[in-house]
Structure formats: C-alpha cells, structure tokens
Fold each of these.
Amino acid sequence: MVDENTNAGGQPLEEALIKAREAQRRVTDGRWVRLFDHFKREWQIYAMLLPTIIWFVVFLYKPMYGLQIAFKDYSIFRGVADSPWIGWEHFQTLFANDQFIRAVRNTITISFYNLLFGFPAPIILALMFNEVMHATYKRTAQTIVYLPHFISSVIIAGIVITAFSPTAGIINTFIGWLGFDPVYFLTQPQWFRPIFVGTGIWQEAGFGSIVFLAAIAGVNPSLYESAVVDGANRWQMMWKITIPSILPTILIMLIIRIGNVMEVSFELVILLYQPSTYETADVVNTWIYRQGLQSGQYDLAAAAGLFNAVVAFVLVMTANTLSRRFSRTSLW
Amino acid sequence: MSGVNLSGIVKAYGALQVVHGIDLTVAEKEFVVLVGPSGCGKSTTLRMIAGLEEITDGDLTIHDRRVNRVAPKDRDVAMVFQNYALYPHLNVADNMAFGLRIRKMPKAEIKTTIADVAEILGLTPYLDRRPADLSGGQRQRVAMGRAIVRHPKVFLFDEPLSNLDAKLRTQMRAEIKRLHNRLGVTSVYVTHDQVEAMTLADRIVVMNDGRIEQVGTPMELFNNPANTFVAGFLGSPPMNQMKGMLTETGAKIGDAEIKINGAVAGHAGRDVIVGIRPEHVTLSDEGQSSALPISLDLVEPLGSEALLHARHGEDTLVFKADTNGDIAHLSGVGAVHVPSHLVKLFDAETGRALNLGT
C-alpha cells in the first residue's frame, strides 16, 4: 500500500512537489526563448499581419492623440499640445445646441429604422435564396441584388435623385399616370428617412445576404433530412432549423450593427440631404462635418465625435453582454 | 406480411447507376444489416427506403404498401443518422419531441412519451441539456430516442456508431440489440463494420458495387460465404485466399498439398481459390488435417491469442494461434495444419463458392 505522504514511486510528496515547481520554473524561464523560436518559425504569418497593424496604428490609434482637443480650446497655431485645457466646456456647448440635439435624435431615428427594416432584409433575402432550387435563376438573381453594393454612393445618390425627380423621375411619372400631382420627395422632410433607409436596403441587402447564405450553407444537411423524415415541411424547416441554426451569425451581425448605430451612412446623407430636409436628415456626422470642416470648430467637432464613439462603445458592450448572457453568442 | 420489400430497386444519377436492381425482403420485426465497403450502395439503399432518395426503378413496399412515391413522413419510418442529426439549439427533450410536435401530438401525450423513452434510454437526467453538453454515447441515445418516440413501423440506422470510440461502440451495440429485442420493430441497419453486422443482425446483406452479394444469418455467411468477396469481407482477420489446383484428394497450393473432404476427385486439374479461415488452423496435427508450410513474418500478440503474419509462396497469409500466456513458442512456427473439413473452395474465374460435396 502506498503511504499517503509518498507518491506511487515511493518519493516523498514534498520532494515531488519541489521538483514539479522547479520544472514549472524552468518552463517559465524558457517562455521568452520559446516565443522567440515561435516568431522565428512563423515570421511569414506575422509579416502578413503587419500591414493591418500599421493601418490600425496610423489611422485609428495615432489620431486618438488628437482627441484631447475635445477638452481644449484648440488653436491650429498653438497646436494640440499647447492649446489650453477647458474641461467639459465643449460638451456643455454641444448639449445646449438645438441643432446637435436634433442631429443626435435624427441619427438614432434613422439607425432605428435601419435596424428595424435594413437588418432583417439580408436575412430574409438569404432565406429566400436558400429556397430557390433552380441554380441558374438563383445565380442570376443573386448577381442582380449584389450589384448595387459595387456602385459608388455618388452614383447611387444620382440614381435616387433621378428616380424621385418631380419632372422626369420614374416614381413621379407613375404618380402622374395615376392622376396625382408630382411629389417633391427630396425636398420634403417627411420623405427623407423612408428614401434613405430604402436606398440603403437596395444598396446593401443583397451583399449583406452573403454572410447569412454562408451561415445557411454551414447548417448540417442531415438536420433537414431528419426533419423531412419527422414530417416537417419547408416552412417548418426554415423556422425550426435554418433560422435557429444561423442565429449565432445573426446575433454577431446585430452586435456589429449596433456598434455602428451612430455611424449613419455619412456620404449618402451628404449627397441626399439639403437644408430643407435638415429637420429629419441632419445626423451627427454631417453636423460634425459642417461644424468641424466648414466652420473650423475642430474642438467642438472632436467633442461631438468623441460623444458618438462613447455611445457606440456603450451600445456594443451592452449588446455583446446581453447576447452572451441570453444566447451564449458574443463577439468576445 | 413483410416489413420492407425491395423488388428490382435501381438508383441512377443520370447515366451513373449506383444500385443495380436489388431484391430483398425484410420480415416484420427482423433486424437486417446492410454491410459492405464504402461506395457499395448500402446507404443509398437505406435512403431510398427512408424516402430521402428517389427510386429510379423497381418497387419498394413497407408493410405491403407501395411507397415509391410516398413522402418520407408518410412512410412511418424513423431514421438514426451517422452524425446523430440532433438540433443543436434544442435540448434533449425538445429534440425528442420535434417529430411529435410536427405531427401535432397533444402536449401531455408528448410529455409522457418523452418521459417513457428517456427512462428506457437512461436519458432522464439529461432532458434539459443541449447536444453540445452531452457525450458521444448520450447523443447517440438521444438520436435513437427521437426515432423511438414516434413508434414507427421501421427503424433505419445509417452507420449510427461510426462516430463513437471502440469501447463506446461495443456498449452501444449491445444497447441497440437489447432495444430491438424489447421493441421488436423492423430494423434496417447500415454499417461498413463487419463486427457490428455479425453481432447485431438477424440476417446480413453483404453488398458490393451496388449489388447484393449474399443474404443470410451471420453464421451462414461466415461458414458458407457465397463468393470470395463475402469470404474476404466477413471475419477478422478475413479468410485467407490462395490460388490452387484440385487434385484427386485435395488441392495443391504451390508446392504443398492439402486434403479436402468431399468429392473433389472428379475435378482434378481445376483451378480454384482455396479459402482457409485464420482461426481454423492448428499448430499441431490433430488428425484429418494437412500441413501447410509457411514462412513466418511477424507475430502480433492479442492476449489470449496471436496473429501470425506469414507467407506461402507469393501468398500473404494471416492465422490465429492460442498463446497460452506466452508467444515465445510461436516464433519458430514453420507450418500450420489445415483441417480438411474446414477448407473452402471457390471458382478461380468467377470467385463463386464451389459445392463439391464438402
């Protein structure tokens, strides 16, 4: 029988523990050596990673240095470092500014509509494509809906402006055929949001469906076969197998989308809005553009930008935590 | 009344025919195993029975009803898949209840059925768990539970144990057998593992290249293989097959001659394949046997017995020998003794078994 103070080899336990600790220490001492060996062995992979790291540093981390002007009375002649600190003054100015508050409200409203109508669109499209059996028809339809993604926002805006033109636009032509007067869609505030959200869906839903189509392709085919034997029809299979199976992908995409809630497509807004529609169209980014670049209030614009980033950060953290808690799916 | 009847069943994908008109009758409550190498058409045949593959030609009846064009859900079959096909987002209870809910069974009845089947399969403590939180064996049980709860007329198993480790496979094999004895449902089971086939089947169907090579009980197939393919497929290690020529009293294999029981005299000079099961030889002459000289390559100890890898002329052979707790005495083996009544003969050209009155 083995004594409880000795191990199976007859060694006293204490001695065995010391040896184990020494062995562990030796492993720890060798960590840097192993790390160096690892880099030496896998340097090609790190070389491929380098451009991305450089991009992050140059375009995302280095500009963070300039964020401090949100708390300074910034002067381009004094520079970032020498401009005097003024604390939260710019933020107080921002929240006292009706136009900024309106921009925040517009941003949230447009994002909400984008989320409500724009987020499910590619999922529905992917589910529909998944049900199409005719390969040629499927490929053709996919190509057609992917195309708008590859068209520049300027062209997209041009198409929208032309389509909604009160004189020659196709929409107003139809309205005219129905005996109604032409509607000045792009100058009336109440039409901006539907047109903007609809354009976004038209431009991105097809391309966005690729992610969900890939997720659907990853669903184990025997789940469907099993369901067929169990008596499920295609509708039941979609609801009970396909959608739950791609739910982790849907949640990840939703978290990413929520993180971009404050980033309403700046280019498209700039291209489609005009002073008469500012009431519903002016978003935080366009307000920052006008204040920062056009009026030269860089410090105030930086404060607005920082506010945008903080809200987005809080939203993405919350969404990620909720998703992890309730569905075991999260970005990190 | 037959459980399942396949008559001239053909499956073709365009010009490529993969199942060539097979005929098979599975009696009610019978456990039939389709066995064969990969690509032999066994899974395709099973999937045609399930309704997951269209039947190109022939007739399929389940309980005397022609079901060629009947939807899978209306065939009253349940299938257990190789990779379990459990819904990852549902817990064990919901997985088992899936088919019942689709069929709109009352909730109370579903609950009772699930509880009963979970009890039979030992799944009661795991009903709230998701498949990802179960071991391979538990998942396999859930897959079987999902089939059982529907009380189908026919169970179809598509290599259900191939994803399990060897130990678990042995356990689950026994559980499937016990379950079949208890439920008495007609079962068609596909595997490429001849041990599974031998241990589970009431009857084995050996398939090769889209055709049935032989149908029979495990021991019929083991003792009297219809051809060299079946002889080489069933048995572990498989039957040794050597080219030979019949003589007045037996068969000449290279320089050696072994005696064979039966009327071989009239066939002297005929080219044959001589089949000897590895476990049928002895190391000493025990009467009515002939010595077959061998050149020993390797001895593989398995515990109570050992595998002797040897050569005779150009033939590579494997034999089994008792170790009696030691393999030292096996290293000097220069010949094995072949009992004359256990030698099998096959036609050298067609590979079919020769019945010469042995």
Amino acid sequence: MDFNYLSTIIFLPAVGAVLIAFVPGLSGRLIKWLSAIFTLVPLGLSIYLFAIFDRASGAIQFEEKLSWIPAINAHYHLGVDGISLPLVILMALLGFLVVLISWKIDLRPREYFAWLLLLETSILGVFCSLDLLLFFLFWEIEVIPMYFLISIWGTGRKEYSATKYVIYTLFGSAFMLAGILSLYFATGSLSMVEIAQGGLAMVQSVIPAAGVFWLLFIGFAVKLPVFPLHTWLPDAHTDAPTAVSVVLAGALLKMGGYGMIRICVSIFPDVAREFALILIILAVVNVLYGAAVTMRQTDLKRMIAYSSVSHMGYVLLGIFALSQVSLVGATMQMFSHGIITGLLFAMAGLVMHNSKERDLRKLGGLARQMPVIAVVFSVAGLASLGLPTTSGFAAEFLVFVGSFTSTAVVGIKLWTLLGVLGIVITAGYILWMLQRVFYGPPQDKFNKVKDADILERVYMFVFVAVIMGVGIYPAILTDVIQAGVMPVMRLLGG
Amino acid sequence: MLNFELLAPELTLAATAIVVILLDFVFKRKWWLAAVSIIGLAVSAGFTVSMWGGGSVALFNNMLAVDSFALFFKLLFLVIAALVILASAGYVAKFRRFQGEYYALVLLSALGMMLMAATSELISIYLALELTSISLYVLVGFLKDSKSTEAALKYLLLGAVASAVLLFGMALVFGFTGQTQLGEIAGAIQGMSLAGVLSSPGLIAGMVLMVAGFGFKVAAVPFHMWVPDVYEGAPTPITAYLSVASKAAGFAVLLRVFYSAFGLPTWLSLDWGMLFAILAAVGMTLGNVVALPQTNIKRMLGYSSIAQAGYLMVGLATVGFASAGDVAGRSGLLFFLASYALTNLGAFIAIIAISSKLDSDLISDYAGMAKRAPLLALALTLCLISLIGMPPAAGFMAKFYIFSGAVQNGLLWLVIIAVINSVISAYYYLRVVKVMWMDKPASRAKVPSPAALRVALAVSCLGVLVLGIVPGFVMKLAEMAAQMFAF
C-alpha cells in the first residue's frame, strides 16, 4: 500500500481549513465551494477504501506507521478495521453534507468553514488513530472548533453552552489522560494494538486494571454521553448551529462509543465482563431516562438532543452485553444513529430556519407549507423509532438480539426487555412531535413559509438513500463490522 | 588551569552588555542597540551550541559546571532574551531615557541566569542569583510611573527577604556538612546516618529554607505574593521575561541543587519529593482558582504562572521519587520549561502589541480583537490553548511528558489533581478567547505592531506548534541534558 489513504482522508479537510483561513480575498461563495471540494474528496476516498476493504480478514488495514516521538515511544500510527471504517465513512459523509447544510451561512464564513473542516479532521483522526497519544491528541483538538462554532454561530445561551461543553469534555479527558498515562506506565507502549494483544496480565501486575478502566471509561462516558454525565448535551445541541448539531450528534458522540469498544473492551476484557452488569443497568437507565425526558421537551432541537441520549443507551447496552451480535449491533447503531439523527437535526434546522419558530407548542400544520420537509422529517422519525426497512431497525434489532442472547451477565434478558420498552416511548415522542409540527390545522402565521430548495433536497435525498439502503441491505455494513468485531471477541475469549 | 573558551558564551554576553551601554552614547537611533544585543546573543548562542555534546567539565575549583544541563538552559535563556528584546522594539518608546541601559540590563540578567544554570556551588549560586535579581529589580521599575515603582519596590523588598532566607538556608547546610560544593555536600550527607541527621535537624531546616528562597524566584505558592502586583506594574516585556526566564532559572537551580546535593540517600529525596508534591498541589490549585476572577490580563497571567509553577513542581516531585538513573522527571521538567517559555512569551508578546494600542490591560477591552487584529488574536489564542494544555500546542506535550514521568513514579494522585486543575484553568483562559472572538469590538481601528515584534511572535508561535506536533527533537535534547550532570 503505497498511497497513504488515511492520512490523505484525515488531513485534506485541515489543508482546506488552512487555505480558507489564510488565503486573503476569498469570497464567501468560493469558500463554500472550496469546503465542498475538500470534504468531497475524503468522502470519495473513504468510499473507495470501503470498496476495497478485505472483508474476510479481521486485521487492521491501510496501516501507516512512523516513529513520532521516540522519547516516549509514540508512533504516528493509523489504520482502520471493521469497527472504525464505518465511522470514518460516517464522518466523511456528514462532513460533506454539513457543508451543504451550511450553505446559507453568511456570518463570518471564512472562520466558520475553517473551523468546520478542522473539526472533521480531528474526528476522522480519532477514528483512525491506533496510538493512544495520537488518539488523545485528535480527541482534544476537536474541542477547539466546537467551542468556536457553538459560541459564535449558535443561538440562545450559546456562550454558556459552549463553555459547558468544553469544561465537561476536558473534565472527561482529564481522567482519560490519567488512564492513558497509567497504561503507558504499565506497558511501556502507547500502541492500542500491542497493549490489547499483550493481555491484561501485564497491566494487572503493576496497577489495578479496574482503576484504569474506570479512568478511561469516564472520558468516553462524558462523550457518549452516559447518564449522569449527559447534561452538557442538550445545552450544546440546543444552542449550536444546525450543521454543528448534525456533526455533534452524528459523529462526535460516536467517539465515546468507539473508544469504549477499542480501548475499554479490547484492552480490559476481563474488567469489562466484571462490571458489565453495572454498565448495562446504566445503559437501560440511559435509554429509559433519556426517552422519558424527551417526552417532556417543548423545544424542537432539545427534544432531538434528548432522544440522542436515549439512543446512545442502546450503544452502551450493545457494547457491554459483550456478545458478537450485540457488538455488531452497537457499531451499526452508531452508524445508523449518526445518519438518522443527522437528518433529524438537519430537518429541525430547516423547520426552524424557514418558520422562525422552534417551540413545539407554537408550531403546527406545517405539512401544508412544507410537504417535502414533512415527508423527509417523517422518514427520519420513523427510522429513529426503528421501523423495518430503515437502518434504525437493523441496528436496534441486532442490539436487542445480541444482548438478549448474551451470556456475559446473569439476568441480561430482563434488562434487555426493559431496554426494549424504550422503543415504545420513542415511538410515542417521535409521532407526537411529527403531529405537533406538521399536522393539525394550518396556521395563518406560517402562510409565507417556504419548503426546501433544490440544494436542501439534494442532501435530504442522500440521507434518506443511506438510511433506506442500509435498512434494506444491512449486510453491506454488517459484513465489514463483523470483520472488526471478530478480533475483539477473540480478546474476550468468546 | 582555566579554559576560558568554556566561558565563551558568558564572556560574549558580558562584553555585549558593556558595548551596548557604550554605544548608547554614540547612536541616536536606539534600535541599533537592539540589533547589537541580538547579535551578541546570537554569537553567544553559537558558542553554546558548539559546546553541546562536549562532555561535562568543571571549572574554577568545581564552582561552575559546563554540562549538557547547563548548556540546555543557556540556550533557553539566550532565546528568551532575544525574543524579549525583539518584543520590546516598539515598547521602549515609552521610556524617554535609558534605552541603552534597558537592553544592557536584559543582557546582564540573562548572563546571571546562565550562570545560575551552571553553578554548582552554593556561594556562586547566590552571586549569580543576585546578578539576575538586581538587574530585574531595576527593569521592573523602568516605567517610572506609580504602579511600576511600587512593583519594583515590592519586588526588591520581598526579593531581599527571600535572598536572606536563602542565604540562611545555605549557611545551615554549610554548617551541617562543612561544604559548599554540591558534589561534596552530597558526599558528606551520604556519609551520615539517618539517626545523625534526625538528631540535629539543621540539614532539613536548611533545605526547607532554600526551597523558600528559590520558591520566591519561581513564584511557587506560598512564596508568590509578589507576583500579581509586580506582573501588573512592570513593563510588559519585563513581565514576560520574569514569568519565563526567571522561573526557568529558579527551576534550573532547584533541580541541580536538589538532585546533585540532596539526591541520595533515598529517604532524603523522598522527603523533599513529598515537599515538592505538596507545594505543587497547593500551587496549581491556588493559582488557578485565584486566576478565575481576574479582570486584568497581566494579573491573570501572573496567577496562571503560579499555577504553571505548580505543574513544574510535579516534575521536581517526580525527581524526588524517581529511582537513580530514571531521567523521566528531569527531562520532563526541562521540556516543560522550554515549551512554557515559548508559550508564555508568545502570549505576552501578543499582549504587548494589543495593550500598547489600547493603552489598557483589562480583558474586557480585548473585545472583538479577532476583527481588529486577526493574526494577533490567533496567536494569543494558540498560546492560551497551549497554557491550558490542549493539543496541537506545546503545552499538551509538555504536560503529557511531565505527567507520564510522575505516573511512572507512583504520583498518580498528584497527576489527577493536576489534570483537574487544567480543566479549571480552561475556564479563565477561554474567557479571554471568548472576549476576543465573540464580543463586539469597541472600535474598528486596526492594531499596528512593529515588525520586530511580529518576528518574535511568529518565532514563539512556530515553536509552540513544533513542540506540540513534532516534539521528538527537543525531547531528545532534554533527555540528553537531564542525563549529563557534572555533579
């Protein structure tokens, strides 16, 4: 493999960001075109990687490894396997779509698109890094663009939300850093692959592995988010600009789930099994609490934000049910939720932008003025509640089947059943939301409201096509994910 | 037998200082003086670099050591002094008189610091320290307005007390061991029994007093009271100089004294290791918490530098806990100092440019600076991010490196305190970022800055990025420096 695909995918957006930020005299239009190009190429490349990915092998592919900091044995080590590749594609896809979603941004476009592209680089970097230091580096870089994007282009209490986001994330990563340092101390290595293959015994001999597991877990739990560390999420989502909400819900939260699989489960399989029950209970709390709180929301975006908390509970459930099917389901759920919630946020953004109203109590009857948005929003909503033929169904079904049949924890059947209840509540709030926004008597104040324009229809179509495509033929993804989950299962000894 | 060529960097610098004072009478255009100073610094740096890797040599009856450790610091001080002089380019217009003396004093204090890093004997340590301090006392008062004068007086009085305390500590150590040379002190201590030390606590008292004396220099809690006032009152380039060079010099001496003289036996080093660990924990917490409500940016960075001294103390504590031959603590400290120096200098240089236009140091007056001076705002943002310890800036690598050493030596609890402190610090650093990028500017007027200052800013920001992304080379240097102690 001569061509460094992953480096190209990761750093092209950053190159675009630097160009946009420092080349003087670019017009707003040109900046948008540049952003589109610098995100479309990585998307194309990542789809190409997906096509040539060797599904039969569980190994890490497209690896790149260079010595980076010899003094601490850190390497510039990239690579993807079946777990990270779908997430890379997810981010590359969203990265391109959010540029389209942001096409109407006119406030300081130069900075906006530069930060947006930098955000894409950092998230892609997280999914591709196989070195703990590099992973952490990308993990932390992501905070800076998010801070600016929320606090400059956001709405409402944007500065409060942005600061809250940063403080929560740094709080989590502070623990994660302590965990990474402990791992490094115990093993003398920063390579995730080496540490995972070296087995836990090596770690255990020097420090209590459970302690390190929890240090790392807290870092990921803030991001996923896991109850009770989720309170930054509704604020950040509510006040972020639409495109940032899409990236946040679509790809950023997945960093937490990915970290749990890649680090918590792969490096500490025994500890993960030991604490699986607690984590599964937490997952069920996440699902039910998140869903219950969602019911009570009156703000359109806040509502979708809380529904993310609930849906991320399924990811947590799938991961710590520790069975092969459930892990595939969790990864699938991450991908599927990324697309579905991305679309939900995009649609919510359109509704808010076109109708100048975000309060569910004051919306209503919009199906008449915006039929296309109404249909697409409904598709996204139905996918979110797990309707068959959408990706949401495939993912959640796999999670439930996997955890129901899992033997990792005693009594997991009961917890899974409780989790399934979440679907019922989801159906409740999604349908209720659609009803409150689009149906009911048409209101005069919305008479001038416009439907989606051509550009918006284009990205809607892409979203819907992916949701339906994966829903109808889930094997396109599960084959790849399966290849990535196999080695994790071997580490788990199952 | 004297090898004067080993003193070439110091001699060059002393000569440059004198030449600058003399040329002050000749040149009407004072920027020539800055140019001469820079040339002198560059020549001195050239000598320093050429001596790298030459092994450890002792001079003057083992009073001075020329080892990689000293050379590392000499180079650091030379770079800092050069950046400070470049950054002063526009600022010196505020002084109606004595511009030549200003440059000369900066050079002389740099000379003092270089000697501090190289001395391995208590009396010469004291002399070097005083050379540095007296130059700095004068520089702090250079603005001659009431705040600057007050700052200088405060610094002088407290500094004198600290010097006295330090001397008393040295006297006790001397009285206890009968030696002033660090290596011989170490020999004397290792010849003693635990009971012998415990029965007469003079050695421990001496050590503690020396920590207090040097603690003043590095602005460690609880010897930090002078910091906010002096930082606020001093001319901003000198604040920058104080916050990085003076601190680095203090840590250089602390490291050499404690590692060389008190490094063994283990029970002793564990003792002072714990002392530094506690000072670290208290220092970073206090510095960060008090920095939160500050409204003046120089005061805020003053408290932030107290907190940074706390992080550096983590490195010293690591050295205390480390087993012999483990360089992680020492090299982590050196790398942290280098990256902190570049970062803080960068921040202060940006502040010099912005504040001299605004004529104000209030954070609220930085509103909308991203519109008025985008590059300055970007540079300051990068430096603040580095101070938080976030990638891709140097501060992240520095913290990672120093904390990884601490974890390896069983100080996980201290590291957890430190990382939580970094989170607290994010709040007040980001507030400045927020004001610059999100608030409405009070006026649309651009903020001009002299070319020399822009060069200095570019150099420090580039350094911050290089140390943050490809730190391998400097880490290697730090590791070599940490290994090569003459004593």
